[in-house]
User: Fold these one by one.
Assistant:
Number 1:
Amino acid sequence: MAKKKSALNRFFSRCAIAMMKSTSSWKQSSRTRVANWLAAVAWYAIPKRRKVTLRNLELCFPQWSPEKREEVAKGTFRNLLRAALDHSVLINGTREEVQNYVKFEGKEQFIELTKEHPVIVVTPHFVGLDQGGIGINTFYRGCSLYQPQSNPLWDKVFYDARKRFSDPVLIPKSNSAMKEVIRAIRSGLSFYYLPDMDHGKRNSIFVPFFGVPAATLPMVSKLAKLTKVKVIWGIAETTPEGYTMHLSAPLENFPTDDPEADTLRLTQELEQFILKHPDQYLWSHRRFKTRPDGEPSVYENL
């Protein structure tokens, strides 16, 4: 039975990958329409993700009506499925095609900034973060952490897409990964870092994220202090025609001697980015899985 299930998973994965890749030559409007249809199906077919998304929005935006939270949640599903299909351009497109598809704001400043020293690019979980990261790879070589996918077929697709163009250094997540990151930064590679995941209590601090205590690694502050590099934001925005990666100027007065205050500052700035496009943020992950001592799970019975 297990072998039969595994064979079926491989079959359906191959079909889904082939279907996704086949859309690279489509107009964006056509991919978006298909993604919207898939999102409508996923809304009912994946109830756990739907419930987590709605619960996160309820916690973060209690002032919103249930109707608005559902509207934003459905928008998140549509944008997430669109980003998944849009990987076809990242996989099959030429360097020039990807550069035309992923626009940049702050590119010239980034190039000048990294001529002498690497930077830490803080890239939160907006749905287009892969598009932004691979877009950077078309003109710059850096490094990032890599979380292997549980499905080996999809893992190869995403890994190969991220290794295109400049052959960036992808460091598998492990207990020793940050040592490798530090070595890579000191060798001159900028670091593409995703700061807004729940990694459990170990080494984390609780900072308010839209008023809800969220376990957060104070990694950006400590890493910037240790490597003496500047920190910038990399915000991936989904647009009707493709994507825009917004690369900020270096953060002023960062880091300080207070990693907790620095982490709070980053979280507050992230909130402002999210408020501009709330349906482009990845609300479907369990951001509040880890709770302070004595607090019950916020995802119980979902």
Number 2:
Amino acid sequence: MLRVIKHNLGAYFMVLACLDFALIGVCAKLLSKDLPAIEVVFFRNFIAALYLLYLYQKSTLKPREGGHLGLLVFRGVAGVLSLYLLFYNIEHITLGGAYAFQKTAPIFTTLLSFFIFKESVGLRGWGGIFVGFCGVLFIAQPWAEAQFHTGFDIKNSLLGVLCGFLSAVSVTSARQLRHYYTTEKIALAFMIVGSLVPLCSMIVGEFYAPKGLDFLLCEFKIPDLKAWAIIAVMGILGAVYQIHLTKSYGIAKKAGVVAGVSYLDVIFSLILGLFLGDAFPSAMVFAGILGIILGGLILVLDKAKT
């Protein structure tokens, strides 16, 4: 067993990263009983920003050219809005369903690369996109009448797809930023923006927070002792997640294989969600989740071969 792990360390650390990320979702689910999703995002990013600031100060990497501040901020805003929607869905639907929607990101990343950067997709790539979108339809079931509908409601389904799209925008922006900034600075900038945006949302929410925009605006609620404990655990998990994720891609022999393993967080979140009281998904929703995973795997593995 140890020999297998030693020869597949990249995949091993990605499995640990997936478990870390799923456990962060568990913390968010527990916190959602008392705190709004936006406030949870704020604490998650603020703690991670402190950790990354510590790492950045200790970094010996030479700074790159810099500039492109607008793109840096844009990437942060897109990423934090994606987290808004992920944590909002964690609060309102099953844990596995929320993570499955977030995993539509590779589909949109491929489409953005095709339309913006004119990258070739190929027959297999279009097949992966088709399978992934079929998975989304199986989960949302827009054709089903109320008495036969076993998926998620239209609002959470649309927000879930938007979560995947914004995540893809953030990832695509990060691709361009790597030419101008080190990875540490990009991550730190993301967490700083990711702390300021929810802070602004909560300030505005003190004066204007309509129910229909509860995924964008909220009032600040003072956490109780139990919530502070969960927030601390979530912060530690966030730091450990960053370590495992960085190690995974840093020592991986094949980045495509590691990216494929990253879909395990959907499986972990589905299992952990059952322990939290989530209902087991219907056959149609389960098929949809598998469709999103399969479509994403086709895309990331196909990209690894090119």
Number 3:
Amino acid sequence: MTASAAAGGSPGPAGSPGPAGSASAAGGPAGAAGGAAGGDVIGETRREVCALHAELVRNGLVAWTSGNVSARVPGTGLMVIKPSGVAYADLTPAAMVVCDLAGDRVDGQFSPSSDTAAHAYVYRHMPGVGGVVHTHSTYATAWAARGEAIPCVITAMADEFGGEIPVGPFALIGGDEIGRGIVATLAGHRSPAVLMRSHGVFTVGPTARDAVKAAVMCEDVARTVHLARVLGAPEPLPAGQVDALHRRYKDHYGQR
């Protein structure tokens, strides 16, 4: 079902808000984050999350309806995430689903992503995370299928990831098992990306945009390192050089 098709208004399940056109279209559930101000921040988060899904398509990270972006709603115990099974071309801000950090839908006419429980677990256990992204991007998912970490053999990896991109455990989709694997794996790494075994990529960041950037860069380095290995056996960068590159990138790269 597309967002436009559903706009005519099928109500949500018992106890949940109804269709876009009232609270959903206006930006969020009344009172969920302190009245009008809360509605404004929910509406802005919905617009941001919707726009960032277009970046997944533009960068070739997703196929059909797979993949998702979520963002923590600032100052609330809420998150906004992509609806399940809705085509990227049909996504609108009003179609984005508002959930609490238990993963339950609070507002929106669609069911949330099947990865919602995993995203919610990350937000509950990683308070510095403001955005989570999931893709099945080709090269990075090929490394995940092999159950192999991407070694840090190029400066771009040292910059962005601070070392290798680790592999997390296999976990079934639908519950918080994936979230548990993400949190446990990233706890010992500087990397904002994890390759969940035989599944795909999950990335985190202080903002949803940062998490999208990490997903783009993860696929880029996965491809480069794969090609390097086809040509030979690339040597991992020494730990001291990785530390220096990562520190320079975090402290000095870009406009300040």
Number 4:
Amino acid sequence: MRGARPSPGWFSFVALAASLSGGPALASGDKALGEYLSSECTACHQTSGRQVGGIPAIVGHPADQFVALMNAYRTRQRDNVVMQTIAARLTEEEILALAAYYESLKPPG
């Protein structure tokens, strides 16, 4: 299929894969800022690290996955109006900070 153009779905896949790859930028998340910002998150997500109802636990969540999920909410690739609204208000720096903070917490074992 020489000369065939990639489908729009292909570009979405590449963008998602790139966001999931993480990279060195994740290490620069400011955990102290993340802790400060986390009060809004804990209104719904349990600080115990346990899932309650349909609200997932985020304590101990890997930073690269946290960033990818938040970016998916920002771009409305994930469907949840509350999370889309919250993610849209956050800057990239704030998302990295929250990712670093939640990754640093130990989930219940």
